[in-house]
Input
Amino acid sequence: MGKFIAGVIFAVVVIAVGLWIYLRYGYVNLAADAPMPRIEKFYVRGMVDAWAERNAPKVNNPVQATEANLADGARLYKENCAVCHGSPEMPVAGLGRGLSPQAPQFLDHSPAHMDERVIFHITKHGVSRSGMPAWGELLNDQQIWTLTAFMKSMEKLPPAVEAEWKKPSQAMPGSAEAGAQKKPAGTESPEVKKQSGHDDHDHEH
Output
């Protein structure tokens, strides 16, 4: 029995050392244009979905899907998100296709099937080790919920909003003109504050 345990320990040590050498000496291809292994795609996608569903705020979208709000959401999307996720002007966003993993192109595969709370959470907090930034550093909760309402409805928009959606945009993504602003302190709802605190605690582990 003792020899068996010693053999297991030896095998674990050899695997750990081999993995350290593999990572430490540059054998992992970290190029953004390198194909991502299928197993990595499978597990990463599952991890992101599980994380977002578990940590999404337990509140419904306070922004109603009115024409005015959807038009505001279309403007925010074009001016902050289209550069990676595409728009009527640029159905396939070259920058988004150059990321690893590639950013989803919403004109082909919209997020309309997703829970709004999950859309909000991913938009606000971003996704670690991907090109998806934490927009909560630039947009306030009201703006992110407005974006969420638009993305949830983008497959079927009222005519007036469709016109806004197809209107050319001149502002640079993430700029002040695009509506990006540092969120004022203390503007989040208690539920979102509580949820954000939970996220921070989880990330510490």
About this structure: Residues 38-204 form one domain.
